[in-house]
Write a structure and sequence with these properties.
It contains 8 helices and 9 strands. It has 272 residues and is α/β, with parallel strands linked by helices. The chain has a 6-stranded mixed β-sheet with strand order 3-2-1-4-5-6. The longest helix has 17 residues. The chain is globular and about 45 Å long.
């Protein structure tokens, strides 16, 4: 069984972060390991508190996992501080951590800030050049590139800029855009690939970014090419949103059902 590693924060509400990542790995029949960077007190309405894990504990988690359960892919989520981001960058250089999917988590769906401002610089300067693919939403793409990112043409330009900054590829996510259609753009050195889907009218969007990046990492861990892993991940997230259980009073969680061979949950599978 392939192994994937997530380096991220804990979501006490279970819809995002480490919890969403591990559920997604399991859905793709990938064994999930984890390095916890922060403990958050949150639900579908807001983030109430964030406790950052001591840096030495983060480092020891990384070393313990990698020396015994070497991952075939790794993804990051909430890194919290510049020190943690620096520690991960150092580990990426000296440890066997292939197929690095960088989810630049900066702001929660609820609007709460999740990344120390100093860590944004470390993420851009040190982690971006190490990743196989970076998966920013529109606001994150704007922060990382300094560009205005609103429409499809902007997304292509932002993706190209992220490649110039060192990323192996960039998937610019359009979920924060308007209109009846969601547009995502994958830029990887060749012709950009544009994915279009009808927008689903729902409040069940908590953890979509975490889930998508985890699904991409799972695909890469299973040996898929990047474009195929992205397609399967987008299919999976679309069905996970459409079949969400409607829990909570705010932005509810997705339904992390088992994935089919094509990557999406079986539409008729309503088990846990």
């Amino acid at each position: 069984m392939p192994i994937a590693l997530t380096v991220a924060g804990s979501d006490s509400g279970g819809g995002a972060g480490i919890q969403a990542d591990l559920k997604t790995f399991q859905a793709f029949d990938v064994y999930g390991t984890s390095v916890l960077t922060a403990v958050t007190a949150q639900n579908t309405l807001s983030v109430r508190a964030v406790h950052v894990v001591p840096i030495e504990v983060v480092r020891q988690q990384l070393e313990a996992v990698v020396e015994d359960l070497a991952p075939a892919a790794v993804k990051t989520g909430m890194l919290a501080t510049a020190e943690i981001a620096d520690t991960l960058a150092e580990a990426m250089v000296r440890m066997p951590l292939p197929n690095f999917v960088l989810d630049p988590v900066m702001v929660a769906t609820s609007g709460d800030r999740l990344l120390d401002p100093d860590a944004e610089r470390v993420l851009a300067d040190r982690l971006l050049p190490l990743c196989a693919v970076v998966t920013p939403n529109l606001p994150e793409a704007a922060i990382l590139t300094g560009l205005t990112v609103r429409d499809e043409a902007d997304m292509v330009r932002a993706g190209e800029r992220l490649l110039e900054l060192g990323a192996g590829a960039a998937l610019i996510k359009g979920g924060h855009g308007g209109g009846e259609e969601v547009v995502d753009v994958l830029v990887g050195g060749g012709e950009p690939v544009v994915y279009r889907r009808p927008r689903i009218d729902t409040d069940s969007t908590h953890g979509t970014g975490c889930t998508l990046s985890a699904a991409i990492a799972a695909g890469l861990a299973r040996g898929s090419a990047l474009a195929a892993a992205v397609q399967a991940a987008l299919d999976y997230v679309a069905v996970a949103i459409a079949t969400a259980p409607g829990l909570g009073s705010g932005h509810g969680p997705l339904r992390h059902a088992p994935a089919t061979a094509g990557g999406a949950p079986a539409a008729g599978d309503h088990g846990s």
